[in-house]
Specification:
The chain has 8 helices and 16 strands. By secondary structure, it is α+β, with helices and mostly antiparallel strands. Helix 1 packs across helix 2.
């Protein structure tokens, strides 16, 4: 996609309620400062967000997409409308849930949100299957007399919206600071020599935990020259199987018919003779 040249004098980063991801908007208003609430035009319609940066030079700024404009500094009426919309959205959520139950649709409704001018309402739901919601759309349109969007999200997005406490005792990463999801694979757990117990490696969303990625590169570097688990090792003229390693403690566990010994990784690499890569 080709870059689009920006025509605004300034650009500013804006964060919306319940979102950790910042978005960039263009403006010619030089009076905007960090912390201002701004009404902006988005793909969904008019929305209110908070400036989380000072103005930056927009001349020469390039983006892959046309930049949306800041419409105005939020007025007291805009802020009141935003609060009133929260109440209206809560009522709309209950009405939509009743319709879903009436129509017996396989949908787990998560949230409802109005745009600032109430020209559109977005219902967010989770479903494992594709849902035919044409009849639901008709009933919602007749009920609310505005544009309706039904947006399906996955389990990770649901966990991000709802939040919770992880096994580490802290708020889940997705709801606390992650602005986008990375690809997480079981190889990341293997690289860190973790037991492949899927329930223990999974977060509240049921998917592999995002934190598996944080130290993956470090572990790959530390394990680069080490033997594989289950490698046959000759150590002090006896044969062992390398059953586990603790990279942080720099120790290795060797098993044989005669018993188990624990040695340092330095000793393993200096004194161990590796007969083959993996036992069969």
């Amino acid at each position: 996609m080709s870059e689009v040249e920006i025509v605004f004098k300034y650009v500013v980063s804006i964060k919306f309620k319940n979102s950790k991801k910042p978005y960039t908007f263009g403006t010619n208003n030089k009076k905007i400062i960090y912390g201002d609430f701004l009404v902006v035009e988005t793909a969904r319609g008019l929305e209110m967000g908070e400036a989380i940066s000072d103005l930056r030079d927009g001349i020469g700024y390039k983006s892959n997409n046309p930049l949306k404009p800041v419409v105005r500094l939020a007025t007291p009426e805009d802020k009141k409308a935003s609060v009133d919309n929260l109440v209206a959205a809560s009522n709309a959520l209950n009405k939509c849930a009743s319709l879903i139950e009436k129509l017996k649709l396989d949908m787990n409704l998560i949230s409802a949100e109005y745009t600032l001018d109430k020209g559109k309402i977005v219902f967010v739901y989770v479903s494992e299957n594709r849902v035919d919601f044409r009849e639901l759309l008709k009933e919602l349109a007749n009920l609310f007399h505005c544009r309706i969007e039904l947006r399906q999200i996955g389990p990770r997005d649901k966990a991000k919206m709802i939040g919770g406490i992880g096994i580490c005792g802290m708020e889940t990463c997705c709801s606390r600071f992650l602005s986008a999801f990375d690809v997480i694979s079981i190889n990341m757990a293997k690289n860190q020599l973790m037991p492949l117990n899927i329930p223990k490696l999974s977060g509240q969303c049921g998917k592999l935990m995002c934190c598996l990625k944080y130290e993956d590169e470090n572990y790959k570097t530390m394990c680069a020259n080490l033997p594989k688990i289950n490698t046959q090792v000759e150590y002090e003229k006896k044969m062992y199987k390398l059953s586990s390693m603790n990279i942080l403690a720099k120790s290795a566990k060797l098993d044989s018919r005669d018993g188990t010994i624990f040695i340092s990784l330095d000793d393993l690499m200096a004194k161990g003779i590796f007969k083959k890569k993996e036992s069969k």
